[in-house]
Amino acid sequence: MITISKLEIENVKRVKAVKIEPTRAGLTVVGGKNGQGKTSVLDAIAWALGGNKYRPSQAEREGSVVPPYLHLVLSNGLVVERKGKNSDLKVIDPNGQKGGQQLLDSFVEELAIDLPKFMNSTSKEKANILLRIIGVGDKLHELETKEKEIYNQRHTIGQIADQKAKFAKEQPYFPDAPKEPISASELIRQQQEILARNGENQRKRQRVVEIRADYFRQQQEVKRLTELLNDAQAKFEQLGNDLGIAQKDTLDLMDESTEALEANIQQIDEINRKVRANLDKDKAETDANDYRVQYEALTGNITAIRQQKTDLLTNANLPLPGLSVEDGELTYNGQKWDNMSGAEQLRVATAIVRRLKPNCGFILLDKLEQMDLETLNEFGRWLEQEGLQAIATRVSTGDECSIIIEDGYVAGQEGVQVQQQPEAIDPAPTWKVGEF
What is the C-alpha to C-alpha distance for residues 138 and 143, in angstroms, rounded to an integer? Predict the structure, then answer.
């Protein structure tokens, strides 16, 4: 992994002249009070390695008559320099061959010199970066593409619906007009219907005459039936007399009891009630078992899907043990980003950024004052263990600081002169184009 062995900065933002040799692996803390030039050091490194898109809007130190000067020596022997009126870039390899920004871009990870870009990204963006570097981002891209196609289709349909609604709103409306256009043939049809109804009325009038004749005939029939009714009434009275005599003859008769039969019938009903209750219970239990089997089968499907997701990440070459993606969000040891400690967030971000370009062995961190000393030391030990280099700023002048910046200088180096000539290249490191 390529790290920064030495850097010299002059007249960049608040920096007057600074020489630093960062720790090869671990944490180099640039301390100092506010407004002294700490962040300017990181901005200068980002500009030197990341290109002109990282050039500060006011790169030259206010009041300086000498243009900015940047000189970095990397662990692979490359010398990176920006100087002159236009701050032209010069990259020289250990063999004296010249290169350019394309060479730096081949191993310098953009997020390493702009870690806040990753830290401040959304949970979904962090998860997408992780999925991409572990090789499962294609599946996610396929789903996102499908979602975009459906979204665009829905958007087009919505636009057409709006256009139709606008067109309808602009058209005049006549509430007394019929729903459909009319024609002469329709009027003729309506005329024929009226004539047919008039003919039906005439038929009904003729029917009245017929019913009246039937009425008079039925009146005569009623008169005849009334006479028959009088005869039937006389017979009814005679039968009543006969009934009274017959009832007197039945007074001494004894009826048999049906109580025993009723008891048996009642017992049969109770038995059948119990049978029906048992059948209902058996059916309910059978149904419950059937649904329980279906539930277990679905649970098995869910477990299988979750196992596939777990296997997908377990078998992936994760940049840090404990990293995962759950419900589209990045997690570390089961915790989402906002529940991680500051040290955990930095550890996750650093590990992911390193995996993006494994040859990039350094990161730049601004404003580490939110970390307590214990967390800071823990993070430093992890960097050393991983062989990573971090150059960070902290509003502090305590012992945890590797150097202190005061008024644009490293404390103890006030007035230092930065040599603006390329240093002699130590030919000891062996380096070939494309190898770091």
Answer: 9
